[in-house]
Recover the amino acids of this structure.
């Protein structure tokens, strides 16, 4: 048996309930709006991360261009030059590595601060994406450094081959001038005969 | 068969005595070609005149020595025989193997003879030398024979 409740109480009670519900709905709506704002803000940050990655790639490309320029401009190689060349390349490499490292740290720090107030799910997701981006960036850095080292090694080999050939030519020329001119005709004949006898043994 | 008749020319030994180098071989072939033209273009009676005019005496002697005895006065009848003699001598020259030798000095005739004798002893009589001069090798010699290249020069040894 339900007690008799006056109609006016029921009416005002309902009005109160509706008012409370309206306030709750307003609160939820306000929270959703804030969450959505933060989400869009994070999206913007993610775009910023993508732009940072793009920038990092540009830095890497610039590093490679610098290295290629050093190689291209090198017209003469000496010991001094070789060490200067190595120093220049190391500087370019280190400078660009620092730039990249700074860029990544800045990106990570700023983004982590921003997402601290967001839900764990979004935080994890954004962090995962940042970690992946960071890995890609690291791979790119490693690849670029390897390519620079490879270019330098190739350049060194090529220059060393040229130097070997130049040194050999110089030695040959000197030997031809010093030895060739000083060998008596009879000695020339002896040497030639000996060379031919040796060749006959090799052939037969 | 004229080819068989002249294929073992004893004259080849004499030929090789005069043809030691590639240059001498080319010269001898040139003389034989000039003589062959005479055989076709003129009466055989004039051949002996052409022989003394177109070829050096050593080669003329080698050819004359090969004339059949019946051919001394027979004129036209000997044309084929002479033609075959020339062909066989040309073939003999063309079949010689070239040994290419690079030296750092210009060899004397005496030294070329020494080399030819020495090489024919080991490689057989049927070779000629193609001698070139290259002071850049400094000394010794570079030899090419039947596709083999042997660099025994001082430059290579340095």
């Amino acid at each position: 048996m339900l007690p008799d409740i006056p109609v006016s109480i029921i009416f005002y009670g309902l009005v109160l309930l509706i008012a409370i519900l309206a306030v709750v709905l307003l609160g939820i709506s306000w929270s959703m709006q804030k969450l959505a704002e933060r989400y869009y803000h994070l999206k913007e940050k993610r775009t910023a991360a993508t732009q940072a990655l793009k920038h990092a790639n540009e830095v890497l490309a610039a590093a490679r261009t610098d290295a290629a320029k050093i190689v291209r401009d090198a017209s003469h190689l000496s010991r001094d030059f070789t060490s200067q060349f190595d120093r220049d390349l190391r500087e370019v490499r280190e400078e660009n590595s620092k730039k990249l490292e700074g860029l990544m740290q800045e990106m990570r720090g700023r983004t982590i601060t921003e997402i601290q107030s967001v839900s764990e799910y979004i935080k994890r997701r954004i962090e995962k994406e940042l970690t992946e981006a960071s890995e890609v960036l690291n791979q790119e850095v490693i690849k670029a450094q390897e390519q620079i080292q490879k270019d330098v090694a190739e350049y060194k080999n090529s220059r060393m081959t040229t130097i070997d050939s130049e040194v050999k030519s110089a030695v040959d020329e000197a030997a031809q001038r010093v030895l060739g001119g000083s060998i008596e005709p009879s000695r020339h004949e002896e040497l030639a005969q000996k060379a031919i006898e040796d060749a006959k043994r090799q052939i037969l | 068969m004229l080819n068989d008749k002249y294929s073992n020319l004893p004259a080849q030994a004499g030929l090789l005595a005069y043809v030691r180098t590639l240059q001498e071989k080319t010269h001898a072939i040139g003389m034989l070609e000039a003589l062959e033209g005479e055989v076709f273009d003129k009466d055989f009676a004039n051949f002996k005149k052409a022989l003394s005019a177109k070829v050096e005496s050593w080669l003329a002697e080698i050819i004359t020595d090969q004339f059949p005895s019946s051919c001394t006065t027979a004129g036209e009848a000997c044309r084929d025989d002479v033609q075959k003699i020339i062909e066989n001598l040309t073939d003999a020259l063309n079949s010689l193997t070239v040994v290419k030798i690079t030296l750092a000095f210009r060899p004397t005739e005496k030294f070329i003879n020494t080399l030819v004798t020495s090489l024919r002893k080991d490689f057989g009589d049927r070779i000629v030398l193609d001698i070139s001069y290259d002071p850049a090798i400094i000394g010794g010699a570079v030899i090419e024979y039947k596709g083999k290249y042997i660099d025994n020069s001082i430059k290579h040894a340095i």
Summary: The first strand of chain B starts at residue 97 and ends at 103.
